[in-house]
Amino acid sequence: MKKLFLLFGMMLSTVAFAQPKPKPAMGWKDVLNWKAIPSFGGTQLSPDGQWYAYVLATYESDAELIIQKTSDTTKYVYPIGTPSFPQISFSDNSKWVAFKVFAKNKDKKAAAKPGGKPIPDKVFLVELASNKKTEFDRVKSFAFNGEKATHLALLLTASGGAGPSAGGGDAAKGTDLLLHDLGTSKTQNVGNVAEMGFDKAGNWLAMTIDANEKAGNGVQLRNMTTGVTLTMDNDKARYQSLNWTEKGDGLALLKSVKDEKYKNERVGVLGIKNFGTMPELITYDPKSDSLGFPKGMTVSPNRTPYWSEDLSRLFFGVHKLELAKKEDKKPAAAPKDTTKKLSDAEKLAKIKADTTVKTLEDLQKALAKVKTDSTKAVASADKKDDTEKPEVTVWNWQDKRLQSRQQIQETQDKNQNYVSMYDVAAKKFVQLADSTVKSISIAPKQLYGIGTDNSEYELESSLDGRNYVDVYVTELKTGKREKVRTKHYLPNFWSGAQPSPDGTKFMYWEGTNYWVYDMATKTSRNLTEKVPTSFVDVDDDHNQQTPPQGAVGWSSDSKSVLLSDGWDIWQVPTDEKDTKGKALVAVNLTQNGKKDKIRYDQRYQLDPEEKGIDLKKPLYLHTYGEWTKKSGVARLDIGKTITVKPLLWQDAAVGSLSKAKKAETFVFAKETFTQPRQYFVTTSPELGSEKQLTKNAPLLEKFAWSAGTRLVDYVSDKGDTLQGALFLPAGYEQGKKYPTVVYYYEKLSQTLHNFANPAYSGTGWNPSIYTSNGYAVFIPDIVYKLNDPGMSAVWCVLPAVKAALKTGVIDEAKIGIHGHSWGGYQTSFLITQTNMFKAAAAGAPLTDMISMYNLIYKNSGTSNGQIFEGSQGRLVAPWENWEAYNRNSPIYHVKKVQTPLLMLHNDADGAVDFTQGVEYYTALRRLKKPVVMVQYKGENHGLAKQPNRKDYSVRMMEFFDHFLKGKPAPEWWSKGVPRLELEQHIEGRIFEN
Fold first, then answer.
1. How far is residue 535's CA from residue 528's CA, in Å, rounded to a whole number?
2. Sorting pLDDT into bands at 50, 70 and 90, what band is 160?
């Protein structure tokens, strides 16, 4: 028996010994080496669907590009330095891939130091079958020649640096262009190229030549089959803004020449077409059009020209010519006064000694002359001082835009230009937009232009945040304009004019319905009044009247529109009857959305070149379970019968569906809070039998990670049914309670399945770092009631936390809260209404709603008042309800605060003025409440500089660790940091890779 126990003990020891070592929590230093696929530009599928490229990037070490074959395990890996934005391109025949290679991180840091020089980018060209690599140095931009795929063009940077030729605006912008033949591997150099671009087929390369002293400047066309180069135009001018038509059958560009009379250049338009034979050049020079073109104007270089689809007209912008100022003639320098400067006493003595001063009268005349000369000297000095201009801004109550807004938009205003047109056959210029109707959108097929004018309503809109416009339709052939809508209300993006693919109609929102306006017949029709659903976005709780749900889009035949009621997608015909006189009715295409609480909330546009939605092809729709948080993809087929088939439906965030250009190969992504976003490939239109392509976040397995998520249902104090997302800490054990940070920003429960890459954010917050370090994280939804934005948080967040406590995960004595900006406001307000929270961190909070209303949103130059009344503030004007402003302002309840508060507020905050943080901080300090405000010099609304992001991220966790985990208080909290010791304090906290 004794031996048996001994053996059993040895077995237990062996089992214990074999248990895996607990994984460490992820610290802020570990973020430096975290690798992940960037949110934008980090992936690409080859046209034939056989190759997939993706980037793994890090914070402060070099990224790598992985080129993975989709059908087997072939994989190529290339280091690409530290890209700000990855640049990858497959050739159209999928035989080649080219990509930018940037400077290494250590070299970038060295170049950023005083005396350092910028490091130009490289381009690697890889033959995919053999993995043969060719390198090109000093590359600014690159492109394959379209569908032909025989050449790679590389526009180089100037030899002296990372940009074009050094110099001012008149300096030559041309540099070397390399044309690399993919078949022969031979490379040809073309000099002094400023811009280049291939047509879609890749048969022609357009180049603008820009050389020193404009010698040989012009526009050239190279035939990529024969190698012959044609000079279409050349002059002592600047050629710019190359723009091919989508088909590649026309090219437009600008030509500008200097005129000493004007500050800006005189600009003309060039058009080239008929590429099947000998390319034809069309030139429009406004200077030679004395009858049609408005005096004192020229073509604007700030709008890219383009051809109409039928190549009959050129479209471009026009703007004013500015007269050059005449140089003031400098007066001849006065002869230098070498005489001795005399004092008044010496002058008087000299006068007395003057032999001409013999009488008292003579003396008085001499004294008067001295006085007059002195007065003239003073006047002359004053006149000189008057030439210095005062620096003043005049704010007038009648300004349609605040002066601050005008300052922000000054460059935009200076670059204001008006859409115009040149009819090639008629040789006629037509100005379409002007100072009245400044904005005109050219509808497809270039038959009509849709213009808007807000001048009558601009002042009122800048006050209350509600936007109105008059809508005009211009017949482009004649230039005739007609107002078709007066004071049209724009509660959101979807309420504006949305033209049909055939360019004859546009859809708009009015009241509670979508309407269509026929520009040919000049008639309107209510599209949705008889549809048995509502298209009003009832979930939008901003102070706007009946905003619409989003329109999915027009059908490609322009006979119907696809609209969302927030749940289902409806096909709504634009005509009342068909050609046989049969009444046309709207059809619910998805059927079960509202019934099953599934939102069909997005259509995937798999063909980037589509013109409207082709209803003969399958439609792929993103689906989202409003209360389950599941998501997926459904396929909609519209034929004699309508079928909707769920293809993917998972407890995950599913999305990013794309399709290869030339193959039935699909790629989609999915992620959860505990599993990073991975991309999957399938050749099945049903999206089955998928294969994982990527290995995103490869360091994940090295660290302790969240144990999963819970969905918490609750009802607000005002009766709203809501949800919150609860993220479990790493190593979670059932029955054990954990310190918790509550985070919020309006509605975020839909992020339940979103993976959060560890990062230094601009707000210091990252849920993955907190859950890895033993915290639970809870994110509840908030909905808002008019005139109670602060109290709405109380009515929603407190019931949410109480519901979450019932899960047994949260330690009720160790709850912290954090929010930034609007969430910072909610935090600063909540701690005046409850003592539920042990600690609070508020980033850039609004604290005094009255003073905040009357401040400027500096980033845009607009008034906060319009945001308060028409957007996020959800309040009426303060003088309409002073009590609501007092009731919802943290500063007016500051005496009730008992929660320790960490604030982040930066001195250059252009969204929530720094004074808002100062007001709250000084009030709390006066009341001897525990508060620390962290301010980063020169930073805006969020932290942009990496050292600042690191610093605040660490400080905020130290703060919560102290109050929620009982760790020692950091000295910057418990004692503060004297100014003279600040540098030493910072040096002691810096950590590097």
1. 8
2. low
pTM of the model: 0.90
Residue 374 is inside which H or E element, if any?
helix 360-386
User: pLDDT per residue over 391-437, tens digit each?
Assistant: 999 999 999 999 999 999 999 999 999 999 999 999 999 999 999 99
- Rounded distance, CA 976 to CA 426, Å? 77
Percentage of residues in the chain with pLDDT exceeding 70?
Answer: 91
CB 272 within 8 Å of CB 251: yes
CA diameter of the chain: 146
User: What is the 3-class SS of 627-661, one letter each residue?
Assistant: CCCCEEEEEEEECCCEEEEEEEEECCEEEEEEECC
- CA quadruple 681, 684, 685, 690: dihedral sign: negative
Q: How far is CA 862 from CA 44, 662, 939, in A?
A: 39, 48, 20
Question: Do 499 and 450 meet the contact criterion of CB atoms below 8 Å apart?
Answer: yes
SS3 795: helix
Of 159, 97, 146, residue with least CA distance to 123: 97
Of all helices (H) and strands (E), which one includes residue 230?
A: strand 229-234
- Contact of 155 with 123, CB cutoff 8 Å: no
- Which residue has 């008929």 as its token pair? 274
Question: Which two structure tokens, joined as six digits, stand for 677?
Answer: 């976003």
- Alpha carbon distance 463, 465 (integer Å): 6
**Are β-strands 132-136 and 75-81 bridged in parallel, bridged antiparallel, or unpaired?**
unpaired
Taking CB atoms within 8 Å and a gap of at least 24, the contacts of 239-243 are 239/194, 239/195, 239/208, 239/209, 239/210, 239/270, 240/194, 240/195, 240/208, 240/301, 241/195, 241/301, 241/304, 241/305, 242/195, 242/196, 242/197, 242/206, 242/208, 243/197, 243/304, 243/305, 243/306
Contact indicator for 76, 126 with CB cutoff of 8 Å: yes
Residue-wise pLDDT for 100-133, tens only, equals: 999 998 888 888 888 888 899 999 999 999 999 9
* C-alpha distance from residue 241 to each of 293, 444, 481, 715 (Å): 21, 22, 29, 57
What pLDDT, on a 0 to 100 scale, did the predictor assign at position 990? 80
Other Cβ atoms less than 10 A from the Cβ of 49: the count is 21
Q: Average model confidence (pLDDT) for the chain?
A: 91
Q: What residues form DSSP beta bridges with 602?
A: 622
